[in-house]
Amino acid sequence: MAPKVERFVSPGKGNGLRATAGIRPGELVHSADPLAACVSLKRARSACHHCFSRHEALLRCSQCKMARYCNITCQKQAWPVHKSECKCLRSILPRIPTDSVRLAARIIFALCASPKGNSEELYTLEEHESHLSSLSEQKKEGLSQLASMLQLYLQQEIPSLEQAWSSLPPSCQDPLSLMGKVTCNCFTVSDGELQEIGVGLYPSLSLLNHDCGPNCVMVFEGTKLQLRAVKEIKLGDELTVSYIDSLELTEDRQKQLEEQYHFTCTCQRCNSRDKDVLTVSGEEATWRPLKDALSRLDGLKAESNWQELVDVCRNLLSEAGDNVPDENLYKLKVIDAALDACIQLELWEEALAFGLRTLPVYSTYFADPHPVHGVQLMRVGKLQHYLEHISDAFDTFKQAFEILKVTHGDTHHLTSELRMKMEECRCELNQ
User: Fewer CB within 10 A of the terminal residue: the chain, N end or C end?
Assistant: First the structure.
């Protein structure tokens, strides 16, 4: 099949990707396996370190005690990649390096195993920007600490890599430069429901530039990245994705992009600031406590302290009352946190009530087809189905399917699950 993308120089942005033909919404534009990927530390106990699927019970590597796998098959398939990593992990136990350091090490192992890389890549690792010259002294210091950890981590394996090491591109031999490339160009690998699983480097797709209202989205099947169009794209149009959570104030989005990716976004949405008034609707004195509580809520969620999380959310929402509309960004985030906690605590009726409150707001903020809106509809539909609100669940699943068949494609496992849920509802309604 002829490629649908090509590399080009995007005015004011540097390199980019553009369409070599017209592309329809829902069409698979490009798919890619990572040069390297690793499960994030927060998912290290719940996701397979080979296929990235999530399970409650996983086999643990008997040597490093960190890597976990679905079964013996995954463990054997992972060994060519894991064997070098395993020695490195054992050498610095009980410390475990950050996600970016472990990813950088895996990139080195991959390059040493195949120094010429993939000839079909549109963009090589050597060409990736490290942005070292534009970093503040504070950020350079932080990157230097990661580079030092990478050197310490690799110390055990460097002798066995020595012959291949000299054939690597110069910037990949320099730990500081490599860490700069990794932190600026890696992608968050997520599951079908957009929950973070790990990080990976996809060289060709690093060419994609950002837009807060993009024409493409990225979804994953395991570690394979699929780029799908969500808008009509004409021959020669630039392909864009959103690097960040688009549900933020313009100044917060721009600040994050400047700090992490070193550019100022001037997309249509940033220039118009079209949703900013709505995101902070209500009296600031009333919604400010909601905003101030978000970091605490994130901490409780990270600790899986669901009971305290739901109690704090209930109190915050009760105090805000109707003085802050649900469209307020910070109130929406508190409602979402309450929904997560209620699901974990099996408070199904309350979870459904919170979920239903989010749907009209998601519809307002995420122009369809948007995967975040589709996944939220599916979550609410599952709650309705469990509580035997079959007709409502069927309608919600249908709405979700119309979105996810575009954003995830017909063959994605989440779309297949949704199709089965719709069929279950149809059978139950017929009975």
Answer: N
